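In the previous lecture we treated proteins in isolation. Real proteins rarely work alone, and many bind small molecules. This record shows how such a complex is specified: first the sequence, then the SMILES for flavin-adenine dinucleotide.
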Amino acid sequence: MRDYDAIVIGAGNAGLTAAATLQRAGAHTLLVERHNIPGGCATSFRRGRFEFEVALHQLSGVGVEGQPISLREGLFQQLGIAQTLEFVSERDLYRVVIPGQLDLTLPAEWDGAIDAIEEQFPGNRDRVATFFDLLRTVTFWQMAAMRGMPVEQIDPVLFDYGLRSVQDVLDEYFHDDRLKAALSMYWTYLGQPPSRLRFQDLALTLFAYFEFMPWHVRGGSQAMSSAILDSFRAAGGDVRFNTGVEAILTENGRVLGVRLGDGSDVTAPDVVSNASLPTTYGMLEGIDLPAGVRNDLATRRIGVSGFVLHMGLDASPAELGFTTSTTFVDKDLDSDHTYRSWRTFEPARGICVSSYDVAPIGFAPTGATHVSLMTLQYADIWKSVAPAEYARVKFAYAETLLDLCEAVTPGIRDAIEEVDVATPLTMMRYLGHPGGAIYGYDQDATEGWLFRDSERRTEVPGLHLAGSWTGMGGFQPTLEAGARVARRLLRTKAAR
Ligand SMILES: Cc1cc2nc3c(=O)[nH]c(=O)nc-3n(C[C@H](O)[C@H](O)[C@H](O)COP(=O)(O)OP(=O)(O)OC[C@H]3O[C@@H](n4cnc5c(N)ncnc54)[C@H](O)[C@@H]3O)c2cc1C
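The predicted 3D structure, ligand included, written as tokens:
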């Protein structure tokens, strides 16, 4: 007799949806989280009269009421939280600014975006329309392939375009480098520059935001994490916060349960881990790591982390000059240089600016604004900063993000009332992930569903993996991954 039917390690997006899906299907589940709140990345914190969103810049996949295959009508209904959450539409996909070269706002709607591009880049209407068709077609066939459609039934367009680099495809369609940059700005959400990013990944991302629009959540991503936790608890699930799992126990080669930080053992035939892969496999006790797992881990690269300035500003978005919720500001058109700079302390070359009060999410008092500035960065350079130097280095680097932001909001520094700075070391500390990686492994051409299937194949019976380390990072992918892994686990349980 085991204590639980399943144990879930980690209450990030995937851990939460896995736990809620399991418990709501009747599998008695224990959710264990090191931190004192649910959400992993999907959390918030308070400073002065502001609350700060930690991670969510744009939630994809939500869609509008009645829209098929949306999170709103799918996962959120299944978890019973669709009516609990209030989604705030961002209206625009983003504004992209390269000072002196480009200032373009793309509405979150296919035709509106074509009009906006045509206005600034006359003569491109047909080319952009054909490019958008390509995005939709590649995404359609990619989804069909991911769901197991036989290769011979897949349209060759997926094989012709899917694995080519974004840059290569953009070069085929467009001449103006500024237009190419405007259409590929989401590369920073995926952590790979257009020269390395697979076209199918950008296509899927643009499709998810255009078709289902970008959203914020009223009350921040924390409200969503708490709603999923409530759904889990209401169905009878147990949760332990401030409790790390120290070991995954095995017996005769299969999972037996976990050992918690206080030394106690809890048993269950199935364990779902939302922790990183190196952490998860490193916690396995009583078993030699299968060679397949060792080889897999040895050939992967820890992904990128982030550097974020969370700011409470004593001015309204209009006073500050914000016209969109999301603005990308880049120093120039050289995305390869920007990517390389993530491993150095070179002044920030590209930032994502989120203004959470253009369409208010409720975190700033009336007349004030909550803004975050973010650039991606790898953790290694931060690990070599001496503790005594850390505060100085992080505030000096933060100034470089503010310098870039001044291009869209001159004088923003004067409005700062509260500021908090997070570095890759902050992410490491709060998430427990190697390198503070926020999307798991580097999402380059060797990753992805075609070449890796770590979510489906753990090679240790009873161990299941869900989250950014076993698939695509980001909110929508991880929310969906947890529920998918739980459903697969339930099917296996039923067949046992
Ligand atoms: C600053 C920032 C901005 C971002 N912006 C966006 C965005 O705009 N759009 C987007 O889609 N994505 C964004 N992301 C990425 C996205 O938030 C993540 O990819 C996603 O939330 C990861 O979810 P996950 O399920 O993998 O779990 P994680 O959020 O990685 O959480 C894992 C959880 O496991 C817990 N854990 C680890 N080890 C143990 C253990 N041994 N015992 C118990 N608990 C353990 C951790 O404490 C943590 O709570 C951003 C991330 C950050 C940090």
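Summary for your notes: The two ends are 16 Å apart (CA to CA). Residues 45 and 52 are 5 Å apart (CA to CA).
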